[in-house]
Amino acid sequence: MPSKPAISYLEVTKSFGRLKAVDDVSLDIAEGEFLAIVGGSGSGKTTLLRLANRLIEADAGTITVEGEEVRNVDPVALRRRIGYVFQSGGLFPHLSVADNIGITPKLLGEPAATIATRVDELLELVQLDRAAHRDRLPEALSGGQRQRVGVARALAAKPRIVLMDEPFGALDPLTRDALGDDYRSLHRKLGLTTVMITHDMTEAILLADRIAVMRGGKLLAQGTPAELSTSSDAYVLELLRTPRRQVERLNALLPQSGAA
Amino acid sequence: MSLFTDPRWGEALSHLPDYLGNHVRVSLAALGLGLAVSLPLAILTRNRPAPRAVLLALASIVQTVPGLALLALFYPLLLAAASLTLAWFGVSFSAFGFLPAMLALALYSMLPVLRNGITGLNGIDPALIEAAKGVGMTGRQSLVMVELPLALPVMMAGIRTAAVWVIGTATLSTPIGQTSLGNYIFAGLQTQNWVFVLFGCFASALLALAVDQLLGLIEGGLQRRSRLRTGLGAIGIAALVAATLVPTMGRSSQGYVVGAKTFAEQYVLSALLRDRLQTAGLSATARSGLGSSVIFEALKAGDVDLYVDYSGTLWANQLHRTDIKPRAELLADLKTALAKDNIALLGELGFENAYALVMPKKRAEALGIHSIADLAARASNMSIAGDYEFFSRPEWAALQKAYGLQFRAQRQMQPDFMYAAVASGEVDVIAGYTSDGLIAKYDLTALDDPRHAIPPYDAILLLAPKRAGDEKLQAALRPLLGKIDIATMREANLRAAGNDGNSSPDAVAKWLWEKVGRR
Fold it and tell me: B226 CB contacts (<8 Å, ≥6 apart)?
């Protein structure tokens, strides 16, 4: 592992009323790593993600981003340097695709010409046709296209860290597959650190370097898929069994290609 | 004469630039003020449920106050405020006309703007506000770049409702001295000039419709994010405002303001006074349809320069006297009392317009009723109708006390409808006016008042304090003093109560001058 983690949680706790959403979690995410946080609804995975850019403030414990304690960083400045992809895009419906993508550079006061060039680059990067999509409103896009714009927007201010909140959850399987692969290669190409939330273990295994499993606010396990499969925790093993079973069933039901 | 060739359409049209311009001016100012107060309040309370609920409740309460009452309420309120600022800071302001109308209308416009503003801001998908935060917006940036633009269509719908309400309610600002399209309606109702009533209703409805449609265009444009629609709507509104305001701009002072209360005789007399002043080379305008106490206060404050009042009315309502004196003595006392307020009583016009209890002549004879004392014995089986203020006036209390009058029922009516109502037997007795021509027309009789419960009501010409030494003005008015006898005034009033081209106040005023001018 590299020397300094991009994001580090140390004994972090966050409660909403009597509910402990995140309960004494310690977790390091290395620079350049792709980490998936897996868990059911109410497991605390979204809270954990949002603590990193201070959309939610921790009750106790220490969170550092690129070596700085987040509570000492202005939250607005922090959010501008961390990319964030929202669940169903979170695009502003009254702004064009280009204006949505360019929003963070605009907030940072970059000149319009620079932003325009950057928007064109990003459209190409997320494989959207510039002429066809640039000036459209989000409502004119398909779900997959919207999520590509969401990724482009998160990357616009050239962040080194990207947080993703179930980014591909609402998409049809084909789009989801394509988008996941495309993002994975962007992650590698741009040298990003990515933390992605998903409830789908298969997606986590296919995309992430490492997986953290949350349940009831607790971090149950973390490690590569291979490491997780040696876990002694029943819930973790159950989570891992699902993709295996699916593969076995699929293999049984579908004729193997070339077996004709 | 057909409805379309009626000369009163032309007369109505000639007032349009003035009435419409003032109507738009006061509506625009009220809406502007209403927005300037409500929008920030909506924004400030968007995340605070408790103050938001209080605010909405207050605005709803204001909305339940009838428009006319709200407007009327602001007049004494401002009057009190003006006397306070005069006492504390040595400066005063006019509580008449524009200011009270604008403030009341602004208050009236607040509910739809507040409600839609709050609804619009609270209806935004929380995920989008989260996204605004997530991309690095500050609270203010989120408000300006995301929340307000998204709430705008809903807000615009509220502004649209407010605009239509304000334009409609502004027609009620006539009685507190603000010229508006309501001048047509009030004057028309009082003088049975249906052409004016129709014209006023159509004009204000058209204005409201036009503004509604143009704002609707803007609203639709904002909703569909179409710059073209929004722009067209904005240009349309700007053009409408310019077209209505420009014709009356740059007009210098209105000169002398002749006041008139809310009944036909007053409209005729104010037209007559205005004509006299204009003939004498003085510029003058008539401000008619003013409430009874509004007009007196406006004269005292100098917002109205002159008007005709009645001695008994001032005696009871302004001096709060309940004793009755003979005509000449009462006038002398009144003159002294008014002089304390520096109001000049220039003189009497020559006739009396007293309140009198009136019933059909034949019925009175059949029942053997000649005086109010005779009436009192039978009153418990009878109903009485009076104008809107009669039953709250001291004269009514005095009458009840002097004769022990107790009616089965009492009703309030538009003065011009009372005479027909009593003639047709719909009510048994009315509190009519002795100078009204309809008494003769419907063959009615005014009952004697042997106990002198009702004071004399000489028509007197009053001048504002600042005009007390105005020789030119007084010279122009003196030829009228003592010239108008009761028979002539009755005939004039009867003409004004007609419904043809010669019944407009202006036409009757000309007829009246031809009749008395050579005397």
Answer: B220
| CA B510/CA B519 separation, integer angstroms | 15
What digits encode the pLDDT tens for the residues B60-83? 888 888 888 888 888 888 888 887
Give the burial class of A254: count Cβ atoms within 10 A of its Cβ; 0-12 exposed, 13-18 middle, 19 or more buried: exposed
CA B334 → CA B300, B375, B390, B433, distances in Å?
A: 15, 31, 21, 21
Three-state SS for B284? strand
pTM given for the model? 0.76
Q: Categorize the per-residue pLDDT at B518 as very low, low, confident or very high, splitting at 50, 70 and 90.
A: confident
Contact assessment for residue B516 and residue B488, using Cβ atoms and an 8 Å cutoff: yes
Q: Provide the residue type at B71 as one letter.
A: L
Rounded CA-CA distance B387/B120 in Å is: 46
Instruction: State how far residue A160 is from chain B, nearest Cα, in angstroms.
Output: 15
A169 shares contact with chain B (CB less than 8 Å): no
> How far apart, in whole angstroms, are the C-alpha atoms of residue B184 and residue B405?
38
Instruction: Give the C-alpha separation, A56 to B249, whole Å.
Output: 58
Question: Which has the closest alpha carbon to B167: B272, B55, B22, B288?
Answer: B22
CB A40 within 8 A of CB A226: no
pLDDT at A258 over 60: no
Report d(CA A17, CA B294) in Å as an integer.
61
Tell me which residue of A59, A54, A70 sits closest to A6, measured CA to CA.
Answer: A70
pLDDT grade for A27, boundaries at 50, 70 and 90: very high
Of A76, A87, A88, the CB nearest to B136: A76
Taking CB atoms and an 8 Å cutoff, what residues of chain B touch A79? 133-136
Contact flag A79-B150 (C-beta cutoff 8 Å): no
Query: Can you give the pLDDT at residue B248?
Result: 64
Q: CB of B23 within 8 A of CB of B101?
A: no
Backbone φ and ψ for B51, nearest 5 degrees, come out as -60, -30
The answer to whether the Cβ–Cβ distance between A84 and B149 falls below 8 Å is no
How deeply is B324 buried, as exposed, middle or buried, from its count of CB atoms within 10 A (0-12, 13-18, 19+)?
buried
For residue B134, what is the nearest residue in chain A, using CA coordinates?
A79
Measured between CA atoms, how close is B218 to chain A, in angstroms? 16
Segment (H or E) for B183: helix B182-190
Q: In B, which residues are within 8 Å of A108 by CB distance?
A: 136
- A135 contacts in chain B (CB < 8 Å): none
Question: Which among B135, B137, B145 is the top mutation candidate for probing chain A, defined by the most A β-carbons within 10 Å of its own β-carbon?
Answer: B135
Query: b/e for A238-253, b at 16 or more Cβ within 10 A?
Result: ebbeebeeeeeeeeee
Cβ-based interface (< 8 Å): residues of B facing A: 127-128, 130-138, 141, 145-146, 149-150, 225
Backbone angles phi, psi at A18, to 5 degrees: -90, -10
Q: Contact B136/A88, CB-based, under 8 Å?
A: no
CB contact, 8 Å: A231 with chain B?
no
Whole-angstrom Cα distance, residue B249 to residue B18?
10
Q: Describe the strand order of the beta sheet including B458-463 as a list of residue ranges.
A: B284-287, B256-259, B306-310, B458-463, B344-352
